[in-house]
Amino acid sequence: MKNFIKLANFEFNRMSKLLFALMGFVLVVQLGAVFYETSTFMSKFNQYMENEQLTREQALMNFDTISFGAVMGNILFFGPIFICVGAILFYIFLIWYRDWLGKNTFVYRLLMLPTERFNIFLSKLTTVLMATFGLVAFQLVAILIERSVFNLLIPDDLRQEVYFNQLMNTYPFTRILLPTNFDEFLIFYGTGILSVVVIFTVILLERSFRIKGIALGILYGLAMVGLVLSPIIINEEWFLDHYFYLSEIFWIEVVVSLIALALSMIISRKLLNDKVRV
Amino acid sequence: MIEFKNVVKKYGRKVVLDGVNFTANKGEITCLIGVNGVGKTTIMNAIMKLTPVQSGEILVDGEKVTKKTFEKVAFIPDAATMLPNMKIEEAMEFMDDFYTSWNQSRANELLDFFNLKKKDKISSLSKGNTAKVNLLMGLALDVDYILMDEPFSGIDIFTREQIAEVFTSHLIEDRGVIITTHEINDIEHLIDKAVLLDNGTIYKEFNTETMREDEGKSVIDVMREVYRG
What we know:
Chain A: Keywords: Membrane, Transmembrane, Transmembrane helix. Chain A has 278 residues and is mainly alpha-helical.
């Protein structure tokens, strides 16, 4: 346990610079979205007043107010989120391959540590999850900061107040950031964690059997997707004809996913102990 | 004692180790000799479970290799095993964190011996100094066995001399050493046992002292006989 914590801390420190750089990038670019949307809106409003020769009160009657949702629809807002998702996806591979590739083959050291090799797997998994949750948490804080800036730039009477929860429900990608209930959390983040574990297993298959391992990895990945989707598929008309209720399917999915998770971890442990190559 | 019992290792269809048997004793320097690709590095990797073997048994002091073995055997590969952005002192801290057998006073002694500066970044070191850092990481562990893979390859003459000096110093003491090398000249006078490999098998295994006394042959003489003719 002590070695796992040490390794996880070590792995996290290795990625912390990248993580903080991503956080900085998100905040700066999203603030750019705030400034862009607010200045465009304000200039449109001023233009409207000028063109129509209206007083401010008259213009307000016919001019639509703006909410923070407009900022969230700007590419400068959701672009960084997608870049972060891409960075995490890339890091899931990088976190393993960088130890093998390059002049300094750190994998020798990792595999020769006098600790359970599975701790390496767990520490890398923990790092990816901490980075993901770290970015999600930071995004939520960033939205609060950006909304405060937005509120400063748009006068009250031109602004439409939207509750935070409503805001987060506006777009599918923000709904994933902040699930509205525990079921959604399990679906979004459970699937995410399972996917990372399965990808790690595929990587270890490749690192153990190289070219053959790529084929094995693809087959394994497909088998896991098939396993996880199987309860939904067999509940369709052509087989069980919706015999199970949606809530029952949900819990069957939870069990099947746990089986897939455990299986992947057992295989990864075996690969790390007996099959992996430097 | 490190024992190889009928070890077979294949990469696909290629047989790299074909029933390898040999032993390396504590307190002795055993040298694995052979041209490139005969399986010297594979033997080292197999001892440390860095590559799986298809059959046979590898034992360290009569026991199979487990995580505990890594406190007993240190492997010094010919590639740098620490992160390039680490300073030498950070690499030492890392070792201290994970190995109970890490001996910091010996590490400091090695720093002086090799004229290394602990504030230096590993990525900024020359090839010779990187090899020295590698040696430091292995030799500063209080282990019974040290495996060294080509410690002299691509290194200047003075560094080679310095590394060869390690073998006669108390830094090796009564530990068991398995070393692979092409540059047999550097250490011929130091090795106790030679293991000649060819095509994944042990061609000849002999005690260098006995060979000198009984047959008047040096390791290089035996190598000439075996590989040339």
